[in-house]
Amino acid sequence: MNGISMQVFTYGKKFRSVYISIFVTVMFVVCGWLTTTLTNTFSYALSPDPFVQMVIQIYAGIAVNFGMTCNIFIFYTINHEYRIAIKNLFGWIRQTRQLEMSTSTVQPISSGMNTKGSRDRRKSSRMSTTTTGSVANLEQRKMAWID
């Protein structure tokens, strides 16, 4: 095959719903702008009165606003991931998961040519303390980093 060859990737149902929701929202926005543009263009032919033309053009802008406000409803209806994100945004889903601090050990990187030796070991022992997630331990860790 000469020229550019295109390869089509299928990512499954999740990406398909994303593409469908984007396509539908783009169509709503394009139809809104098309309706407004055509109405504004034909308003000059419909009435010779400038006031009536202005009123027609003002009301034609409703189509653009309608097309743009439909996005959230389309995303909510079509895509499950957007639905969860929108519910989280408005606080409709209670977040029962609490932030848990993980325990980890922090050790300094040494190249063997460090002359501070004991000071680095003392500092690394302060930084390598494990925490249970309480605020007091978090404050102690912050102070250890500041020292």
TrEMBL record:
Intracellular or extracellular location(s): Membrane
Membrane-spanning ranges: 18-36, 56-78
InterPro entries hit by this protein: 7TM_GPCR_Srsx, 7TM_GPCR_Srsx_nematod, GPCR_Rhodpsn
Location of the region described as Disordered in the Swiss-Prot/TrEMBL record: 104-132
A molecular-function term among this protein's GO annotations: G protein-coupled receptor activity
Ranges annotated as biased composition (Polar residues): 104-114
One Pfam family of this chain: 7TM_GPCR_Srsx
Top-level lineage group: Eukaryota
Keywords associated with the record: Membrane, Transmembrane, Transmembrane helix
GO cellular component, one term: membrane
PANTHER family (UniProt xref): G-PROTEIN COUPLED RECEPTORS FAMILY 1 PROFILE DOMAIN-CONTAINING PROTEIN, G-PROTEIN COUPLED RECEPTORS FAMILY 1 PROFILE DOMAIN-CONTAINING PROTEIN-RELATED
Name used for this protein in its record: G-protein coupled receptors family 1 profile domain-containing protein
High-level lineage: Eukaryota, Metazoa, Ecdysozoa, Nematoda, Chromadorea
